[in-house]
Amino acid sequence: xxxxxxxxxxxxxxxxLHSDAMSAQENQAVYGKCNNPYGHGHNYVVEISVxxxxxxxxxxxxNLADLDGFVxxxxxxxPGWYAISSIWTPS
Amino acid sequence: xxxxYLTRKAEFSASHYYHNPEFTAEENKRIFGKCNNPNGHGHNYTLEITVxxxxxxxxxxxxxxxxxxxxxxxEVIDVLDHRFLNKEVAEFQESIPTTENLAIxxxxxxxxxxxxxxxxxxxxxxxxxxxxxxxxxx
Lengths: 91, 138
Hints:
The structure holds 2 protein chains of 2 kinds. In chain A, strands 2-1-3 form a 3-stranded antiparallel sheet, with no helix packed on it. Chain A has 2 helices and 3 strands. Chain A is elongated, with a radius of gyration of 19 Å. By secondary structure, chain A is α+β, with helices and mostly antiparallel strands. Chain B is of the alpha+beta class. Helix content of chain B is 30%, strand content 33%. Chain B has a 5-stranded mixed sheet with strand order 3-1-2-4-5. Chain B is elongated and about 60 Å long.
């Protein structure tokens, strides 16, 4: 039987909205205060939904510990995402 | 006639643990972790029941909310609230009371009891950050 499981993850990051294809004035007009060269931060929430048959042996679509590890590795703590500064994973 | 979706929320608290007697003790521990503790642990669950149907032109309702509440209370909340799911709810003698199986169980308990509006979705929150949706799909 197919079900859908959703897990919410939290992370904080900084960013700046800026396009090199536009002049400084155009960037300012389009992005406003989000164009501040020093950036600004948000607390983001991402909802990851997976679907699939419920395994009769475990009663699960996906093992939550595996899903948490996967999302942490691939998204919330992905190497190279320099701006990502912290994460809180619900237990 | 316009089709609308109506969602009603309810809450219940229950305890459970995860264990498959066909697994060894080590496998149960590895797969289910701390949820394998046989003394159980509890959650405050939130349930969302969504029904769909056409708005009755006389009442302006998809479904009588009082009736829907009474059915949810009788068929689901009275059965699950303040229960040890593994020990006190029939279907969890045979299956593990995960959030997935809870959603399917609640669907099966409600489906045949609704006649005017059609059951569309059962959503069960185990915590505010974890929920399962079931639409009756095979």
